Amino acid sequence: MAVEQSAWRDDDSVPVSAWLAGYSPLAGTHDELIGPDGRPRAHWLTFFDSLSALGENELEHRFAAAGRRIRDYGVTYRVHGEARERPWPLSRLPLLITESDWRGLAAGVTQRATLLERFLRDVYGEARLVAEGALPAAALAGSPNYIRPMHGVAPQGGRWLGFYAVDVTRGADGSWRVLGDRAQAPSGAGYAIENRLILARTFPSLYREMNVRRVGPFFRDFRVGLAATAQRSAPRICLMTPGPYSETYSEQALLARHLGFLLVEGADLIVNENRLHVRTIAGQKRVDVVWRRIDADWCDPLEMNAASRLGVPGLFDAIRQGAVAVTNMPGAGLVESRAVFSFLPALAPKLLGEELRLPQTGAWWCGDPRAREDILARLDALAITGAHGEKAPGFAKDGATIGAALDSSGRERLAAALEARGMDYVGQEIGKFSTTPSFVDGALAPRPFVLRVFAAATSDGWSVMPGGFCRVSDDPNMQAVSMGAGASSADVWVLAERRVEETSLVASLRDDRIIRVLGNLPSRAADNLFWMGRYLERAEATLRLVRALCHRLTDEWSDRRWVVERLKRMLLAWGAVSELSEQSAAAITVAATSDPSAYGSALSIAGQIRAAASIVRDRISPEVWQLVARLEMRLERAAKLTDSEPEMLENVQLALYALAALSGYMSENFNRVAGWDFLDLGKRIERAIVTCRFARQFADAEANDDSLDALLELIDSQITYRSRYLGEVSRVRTLDMVMLDPFNPRSVGFQLAQIDAHLAALPTLHSDGMPEAPRRLALKLRAEIEVEDARRVDAQRVLEFEQSIMLLADALADRYFVQATADAPKDEPSGLA
């Protein structure tokens, strides 16, 4: 029944009245907004009063700003099977929970986390539950998440669970009910941070007025708890990711950035002498703690899935030796089994001495003959799932099989399957999700939601995040809520009874220890920063070629066909365009700028910048990601400008401005540590190579005034040249400025000086006093170009410099990006690197 405004508020503002007048809770479900008496709950009324005071136009403006923040900051997720990431779907409204309500939920989550920790300790230890008949062995042995190599292992730090999540909703009576446990590699905590940051910035006054509890202290406690599991006082903590194609890679990068962890893939890690190390530019450095986001089956190809390229050979042995702490321990995912879930209410009194505080949805393991008979008798009222997964083996393609939806032959086939292998199935109660208000077409409507609550192990016990990860379905009849099924995510506001201290996430994680260098840079991160720098310079060079071509297309007073043809041939050779024969010069400029099918077009290179940046997302600021996105958008617009040469030129110039802003921002804000060295090394090497190619094309033996002027334009040195020299352009003087001039930031000589300075600052693997291969090449090249005479520089000599610089790039990659085990020193067992 719709809410009657006059029944509860006579003087309410028009916007609130319009929102609430047609709001009708779904029958038989608990609704967060409307109480059993049909009236809005007080805390929601306070929220909507404050929200309506902003006015409809201001609200739309703020919602649009929130959408831009999501896009600009690169908050994304990927649906399984899709190659492209989607923007994060943030709900316009938070889920509001009072502190008294939250207190009971948090206590229940703490109890459940304690229960599951004791359960795992028993299952992988003495196995008394099985020996005493409280838990059938068949309910465990069939689970792919039971990791046999971990049996008998004592986890370093003493815990199987360090980070736990539980999915809950409310029953029709308003009590919280557990839907499932998450311990394999729980996701959502990073998105909870993003939801909070975006919504708090969208409604800062409202956020303060509602007295929302902060989530920062929870992550501080978690980080301290992880560090306490290590053997060293200042441990190296890594977040182990499946990689950039993971569905939640954006979240993983954000967590690593906020918590100060190294974001690593399996290829970044190696086990030597039973210890886990990360490959860095300074060799292999010992890893103390791993927070894994990879399923246990993929963690160690030597002992589990041999096809895995995500894990680390020998990792399980390092765990058994107590050489590394892993959160959560491989094998903890066993608690996600629906078979295990069905036994937890009965196990709680045995393991805890008390009943579960949080009831859970009814579930019955079909390996029990009595339970199986009962399930078959009331199949229409139940759903059938796999005992160790959501899918019923042989039936559901995705999710549970609903008994009432089966025809007679389907029921017969299911009954036969349950009789033959009941241990593979679980019968589960079908319940409705509780609902929360959501904006639908400008009006409020109830929508089902699932709340994921997080708990972290600390030395003082379990810490529960005051908030969580809420998924809201866009389908009012949805029986399962996932981010891949049209759901959105809502921030969760726990409304404190007392004034909440103003603090930010960063401030809450701060301590008094001074750190100026964030450890040694992983080789993979160095590799991607290096290539990000190269792609930035490559995009700029392509755009400069296009701009030079545009200038000569609009100049009616000079015959520059020779220069135009060379510009076009360079774009073809670089892959910026696919062919020249049937395209006008104007069409070529558009294609070189914005053709996504041409691997060397400016737009394609911008995509490569974004791809490289995404892999090191934990090391770059949201502003850098925003500028990368804007560069792509600027280049995409160029495809619509085929009929307007002046507009094309302007668009290319704006794209160059965007690149300059990106390079300038990184130059002024990137900390001058190893990451900066590799980013700038990439730029310097690519600029030197590109400049050599420009010189070979436009300053060869056939060069004329127009071609030399084009060369000076391409390296942005026309004004400098004219300020130094009077009269016509000289080939020798131009080559000196382009190739040798140590004071010209665009010359090859200047790049080599910068490259040598960067290499001198990087760590060395050996302390024998001899320069390593990249430094030797850089020193030789720098010396050659410093003593070179411009009068002796011809196209062949320029080519020799270009090839030597390319060899330098290869030597740098061989040294820092691919390491041989024998050349990589390890930390001493008691040392700190």
Can you characterise this structure?
Mean pLDDT is 88; it is low at 1-14 and 820-833. Strands 4, 5, 17, 18, 19, 20 and 21 form a seven-stranded antiparallel beta sheet that branches. By secondary structure, the protein is an alpha+beta fold. Helix 7 (189-202) crosses helix 10 and helix 16 packs antiparallel against helix 19 (602-615). The chain is built from 28 helices and 22 strands. Among the domains are: 100-337 and 458-464, Rossmann fold, CATH 3.40.50.11290; 362-429, Dna Ligase, domain 1 (2-Layer Sandwich), CATH 3.30.1490; 524-670, no CATH class. The chain is 45% helix and 12% strand. Residues 94-473 form the Circularly permuted ATP-grasp type domain. InterPro entries: ATP-dep_Glu-Cys_Ligase-2 (IPR051680), CP_ATPgrasp_2 (IPR025841), DUF403 (IPR007296).
Give the averaged pLDDT, no decimals.
88
Known CATH architecture of the domain at 100-337 and 458-464: 3-Layer(aba) Sandwich
User: Helix coverage percent of residues?
Assistant: 40-55%
Q: Kindly estimate the percentage of residues that lie in beta strands according to DSSP.
A: 5-15%
Q: Given the helix and strand composition, which structural class is it?
A: alpha+beta
- The quaternary state of the protein chains shown equals single chain
The biggest sheet amounts to: 7 strands, antiparallel
> How big is the Rg?
31 Å
CATH class of the domain at 100-337 and 458-464: Alpha Beta
Q: Kindly, what is the distance between the CA atoms of the first and last residues, rounded to a whole number of angstroms?
A: 65 Å
Tell me, briefly, the overall form.
Answer: globular
Using the coordinates shown, work out and report the CATH topology of the domain at 100-337 and 458-464: Rossmann fold
What count of helical segments does DSSP give? 28
Domain DUF403: 521-817
Pfam family, one: Alpha-E
Domain Circularly permuted ATP-grasp type: 94-473
InterPro entries: ATP-dep_Glu-Cys_Ligase-2 (IPR051680), CP_ATPgrasp_2 (IPR025841), DUF403 (IPR007296)
